[in-house]
């Protein structure tokens, strides 16, 4: 047998190892995460004999070139755990992780592990439909790369963290469906210029909205289903680029007729509040408006004619003090 043939056999015998791109340190961490979750069947594809970076490990994806196939995204979804487990502390040992998603797993419980603070490249963290509890920990403020935080439909409680605006590139917060209580911190009026979405619905928040919200230009605002009160007019403005405002089921009370309206407004839900005044005539100029619900308030006067206002369902105007005009009955002339 020639030397060339012998060399070829040696190369072929090692071809599986040569073709593997999964970083061995990341692979060991992932296997440890699986162990800390009780080796669920949902992660049956996580095998030591396969490559974690070749789309064979469910929920795992890797950077391809710039970071030499390090684990970049991790999604732990619908794990069907046989008993309650905490979020695995080993997650903090994936140094190149940019996106972490834990979702639809009732048996994920406890508080967030402090090791998450080690993820210094993390951009997005999403934990939804689990039973994690406690307050949002301060150690998240150490992750200066965070752009989006979504903790929705869990059992988180306590006050909203006043330190959140200290994250330099944070643009999206979604804390819907928890048990947060108390007032919205005044510091929330100092989010950076690029901050675009604040969603705090279905909690136990009370008190007034910080006046500094007038300085924010957010595309999406959802404060619905809380116990917030007083003025919310600072959320509006003709120079803003707001697309969606959800304020329903609170105790807001302000003169709606005096607010400026964003030209990009698409959805406005004010139902079940104490809002008074008239409907702004500017509503007729909103070409993108697809939903307007002002029912169950103290509004008065004639509905402005134009735009889509006459095509809105009657129920979206119902139960106001003295709102009238098409599509409601004609106004009474005195």
UniProtKB/TrEMBL annotation:
UniProt cross-references to Pfam families, sorted A to Z: LRR_1, LRRNT_2
Keyword tags: Glycoprotein, Leucine-rich repeat, Membrane, Repeat, Signal
State the GO CC annotations.
membrane
Q: Which InterPro entries match?
A: DNA_repair-toleration, Leu-rich_rpt, LRR_dom_sf, LRR_N_plant-typ
Instruction: Describe the location of the Leucine-rich repeat-containing N-terminal plant-type domain by residue ranges.
Output: 24-62
The subcellular localization recorded is: Membrane
Entry-linked SUPFAM superfamilies: L domain-like
> Is Disulfide bond one of the keywords?
no
May I ask which residue range the UniProt record assigns to the signal sequence?
1-19
- Record Gene3D superfamilies: Ribonuclease Inhibitor
Where does it primarily localize? membrane
Q: Which domain of life is it from?
A: Eukaryota
Q: What is this protein called?
A: Leucine-rich repeat-containing N-terminal plant-type domain-containing protein
Q: Does the keyword Membrane apply?
A: yes
């Amino acid at each position: 047998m020639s030397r060339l043939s012998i060399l070829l056999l040696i190369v072929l015998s090692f071809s599986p190892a040569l073709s593997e791109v999964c970083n061995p340190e990341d692979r060991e961490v992932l296997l440890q995460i699986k162990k800390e979750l009780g080796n669920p069947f949902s992660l049956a594809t996580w095998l030591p004999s396969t490559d974690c970076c070749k789309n064979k490990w469910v929920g795992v994806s890797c950077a391809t070139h710039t970071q030499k196939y390090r684990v970049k995204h991790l999604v732990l979804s619908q794990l069907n755990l046989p008993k309650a487990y905490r979020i695995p502390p080993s997650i903090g040992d994936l140094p190149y992780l940019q996106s972490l998603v834990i979702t639809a797993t009732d048996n994920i419980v406890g508080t967030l592990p402090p090791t998450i603070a080690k993820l210094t490249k993390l951009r997005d963290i999403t934990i939804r439909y689990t039973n994690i509890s406690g307050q949002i920990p301060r150690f998240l403020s150490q992750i200066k790369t965070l752009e989006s935080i979504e903790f929705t439909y869990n059992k988180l409680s306590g006050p909203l963290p006043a330190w959140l605006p200290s994250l330099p590139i944070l643009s999206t917060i979604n804390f819907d469906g928890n048990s947060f209580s108390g007032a919205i911190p005044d510091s929330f009026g100092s989010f950076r210029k690029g901050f675009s979405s604040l969603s705090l619905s279905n909690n136990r928040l009370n008190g007034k909205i910080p006046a500094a919200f007038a300085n924010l230009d957010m595309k999406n605002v959802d404060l619905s289903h809380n116990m917030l009160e007083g003025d919310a007019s600072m959320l509006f403005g003709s120079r803003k680029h707001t697309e969606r405002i959800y304020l329903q089921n609170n105790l807001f009370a302000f003169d709606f007729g005096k607010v400026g309206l964003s030209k990009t407004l698409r959805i406005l839900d004010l139902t079940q509040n104490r809002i008074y005044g008239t409907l702004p005539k500017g509503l007729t100029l909103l070409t993108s408006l697809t939903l307007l619900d002002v029912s169950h308030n103290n509004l008065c006067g004639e509905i402005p004619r134009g735009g889509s206002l006459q095509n809105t369902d009657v129920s979206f105007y119902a139960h106001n003090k003295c709102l009238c005009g098409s599509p409601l009955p004609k106004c009474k002339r005195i």
